[in-house]
Amino acid sequence: MFSGSIVAIVTPMQADGAVDYGALDRLIQFHLDNGTDGIVSVGTTGESATLDVEEHIEVVRRTVEKAAKRIPVIAGTGANSTTEAIELTRRAKDVGADACLLVTPYYNKPTQEGLYQHYKKIAEAVKIPLVLYNVPGRTACDMQPETVARLASVPGIVGLKEATGSMDRNRRLISMVGDKLALLSGDDDIAVESTLAGFRGVISVTANVAPRAMHSAIAAALAGNPDEARRINDTLIPLHKTLFLESNPIPAKWALARMGLMGDGIRLPLTPFASQYHRQVIDALQTAGIAFA
């Protein structure tokens, strides 16, 4: 369940910000057709911060329904309130999610002991596989490898999405918990190298627009074929960079709209992709061989 190229899927929206469920169905089919190995539904790339609880759970439910057990669906259920995270996790399980992804509590700046207790309480409250998510650049909270090692012994905690951008950190995690947790890169630009080093794959933003290539690159890395993995990844490097020219998922949603898969809808406080960056994303799509209008 926790290997390969797993897409951190965007949540398509109409011009007024309403969730576009028709476009969501098209996106999921796009991933089913192009080899994506799993879907993270309503993670932070899915604008979880601006979906209300009912929308959040409905998007997960629709994703589970459309995926129809062909690939796993991991629901983003993290929150900076432990009780809220438990409630989201419980409801995601109720609508059929295969697992849940839980970002570290943001803004609160919990201690390492607070992080341990937060995740332990969620794991005890809801019996579903849990993947931890460490992304200090967006949360102002960095879960240390020693804390991850403690959590690896908690029943129900099965994986970690690590997004510090550091290969040194990733190698340390491999040595400490690589035999206990499914380690997944949260950084597209080092996903292939992380997988070659011992990670099991990636939870990817780039896979939103280049699912086949991301699947192939990670599959080659998992098969121990570094030359092929790096060759494919070389075509994706411009996308890894340009999809973060503004806050994720702004560039990815703009690119998907150009690909005809959804409209341009996005919710405040995120705003439409600035025009001065359009050419760079277009060039990156061309380098990756992706068709667009």
UniProtKB/TrEMBL annotation:
Active-site residue list: Y133, K161
Gene Ontology CC annotations of this record: cytosol
Subcellular location: Cytoplasm
Site for Part of a proton relay during catalysis, residues: T44, Y107
InterPro entries linked to this entry: Aldolase_TIM (IPR013785), DapA (IPR005263), DapA-like (IPR002220), Schiff_base-form_aldolases_AS (IPR020625), Schiff_base-form_aldolases_CS (IPR020624)
Amino acids binding pyruvate: T45, I203
SMART domains tied to this protein: DHDPS
Catalysed reactions, as listed in the record: L-aspartate 4-semialdehyde + pyruvate = (2S,4S)-4-hydroxy-2,3,4,5-tetrahydrodipicolinate + H2O + H(+)
GO-annotated biological processes: diaminopimelate biosynthetic process; lysine biosynthetic process via diaminopimelate
Top-level taxon in the UniProt lineage: Bacteria
Keyword Amino-acid biosynthesis belongs to the record: yes
The protein's assembly and partners: Homotetramer; dimer of dimers.
Physiological role: Catalyzes the condensation of (S)-aspartate-beta-semialdehyde [(S)-ASA] and pyruvate to 4-hydroxy-tetrahydrodipicolinate (HTPA).
Identification of the protein by name: 4-hydroxy-tetrahydrodipicolinate synthase
Organism, as annotated: Povalibacter uvarum
